[in-house]
Amino acid sequence: MAKIIVFNNDTDRMETYYRGENEPMPYNTNGTLKVREFRGSSNSNTLWTTKRTMQTWNSQRYIFGGPIPVGFAFKRPYEGGHGNQSQHYAGVAFDVGQRLTATRRRQLWESANNSQIWSYVEPISLTPTWVHFDKRFGTPACPTGGYPLLRRGSLSNYVLIAQDDLNTLGYRTGGLDGIFGSATQTAVRNFQSRVGLTVDGIVGCNTWRSLQENVVGTGRTSTTID
Predict the structure, then answer these.
(1) Is-above-0.70 flag for pTM?
(2) What was the pLDDT predicted at 35?
């Protein structure tokens, strides 16, 4: 049984669901995306995503008109497997189509690229054996892209990434809920002080880089929470 935290972009609320591995993801229609497919190779009992990501998947599945095999979707930062500010850690990205024929995979890429429903579709030249698309949102904190700036009062799946990083590093946020409250702010300040960053309690470009560099792929620790 997986615990699935969903950022509802329409109501600006965090929602929690519990689903079996063969049950559809929250907001998925017609059972086209099972929990086990979204989980992929992640060993975490806690997963997260957004309502709009699931709705966009529904639209993509309808547009394509056939099954879309999922190779990789969700990962927690400490599990690694992707770049330091990958949207897979936010639960809004899919690497799909690995089991399709080259012709069918090209059709999938064209349907995703032409639909304009995704925030980003990776150029086919960069993904010759799969198709990557994601539903990222927010203004990147770094000029080169990546995750959005977070501060006290922020609420989203990106807050979950920051909380997960901080807890894994031993800076306790008081939970893993996607809500940037006082405990998360204190944890950010303590981390910034420890690594020599400006202590402002804001997760901006440099703090994001440092958090992810210290966590991605390092594995679960005794202070990681679900």
Answers:
(1) yes
(2) 98
